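Intended use. Records like the one below are meant for learning the mapping from a protein sequence to its folded structure. Do not use them to infer anything beyond what is encoded.
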Amino acid sequence: MSGATPQSGGRVFWRLRDGARRSGVRVRQFARDPVAQFRRNVEQLPFDYPVSTVVLIDVVLLVVSTAALIQRFSYFPSVVPVLAVVLTYLNGPLYAFLGLSPKPWLMALLTMSATALFMSQPVDVDVAPFILICAAGEIAAITPLLISVVVAAAMAAEVALFAVLGNFETGTPPYLVGILCGWMAGRALQAQTKYLNQERAYQDIRTSQATDEERRRIAREVHDVIAHSLSITLLHVTAARHALQTDRDVDDAVDALTDAERLGRQAMADIRRTVGLLDQRPAPQTPEPGLDDLGDLIADFVGAGMEVDFRVDGDICGVSPGLGLALYRISQESLANVAKHAPGASARLRIEVSARDIAVTVTNTLPTGAAQRPGRGMGISGMRQRARMHGGGLSAGPCEDGWQVQARIPFSGQPIDCAATAAEDSVWSMIHSMKRKRQESRTEPASTPQTPRESV
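Structure written out for the chain above:
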């Protein structure tokens, strides 16, 4: 026990020495730039109030204490009112100069002591109790409810005590009501700050959720573009390799590689456009694909050697661009999965538009050895998310003919004038012309064993 006391005293001494050194540094910083240092000290307070609010309270206290000082010096100059002003502002240098957090109990003690010194020299229409009104609001704004109620009650009791002593000629009710109003103003300010902080937190959460959703959307777009383009490109490269290995048909190989190069460049452009959405700078926007672009999509797969039977039943004129993009991506991803997981299979794409919904069905045969279960990539999950975004659903699994992906999305659009029939006719004419060209190449006299492109 005898050795503990010197050690404790030493720790206290070093603690006081460190505190004095830090306080000296803060005072020198305040002397170099008072405005900036005051603002910095107020912003570091744990109460999260604007600097203007703190300055306003200090100015009000200065006006009230100065008015109370003038009232007393007019008839009996003494040092007591000056001491009361010093006590009123003694808490200010603690956070303004030294950056120390104000203590509610110290604020209450100083303001109540200053008010007691003022009211020890009674005057007519005394403004000194307004110090308690300001202090009650300030303490209520930074303390819990119970502490603020106790402090406000103690201030009211002090006013009532001096009223009993006969120091107020105008009566105590106005001052008591003023303390209550000051306390209510402080509680309202604290509640407003609390709700503001909650709103900021909710805004951060909403921003984070929106950012995550945008990232998922961009990931789906990039996945769909890459899956579609790479699948068709690989089909073209495979056809070119078989053409060179089997019949040395350089022309067919060059055509296949040309199509592969074109699709690769198109995929790079789509990826740049999609990734460009992450940039905050304004960039030229290109239209997103829709149902009218299914013709080019089917032509790419047919040109790569896949047999695709495509038909649209119903009027697609009332389909919105967002819904059209979802249907396009679902069809694109389904056909890309056929090319990736079931090479050599034939596919059937049906889009059925009714008065209540739109159904997209992609069915393909399963060659020998092809997997009969969904993969673990982003394909099916991305398609399902697209369908759910529009209030629909998607199912994928084995069927009688092989494998089937079906999406059904609610639809209540009204048909409008458009060129859907002409677009469908152009798609069919394109597909038929490519099939006819392939059939004519099969009937040439110098035919060689069929390549994989011809056997599809």
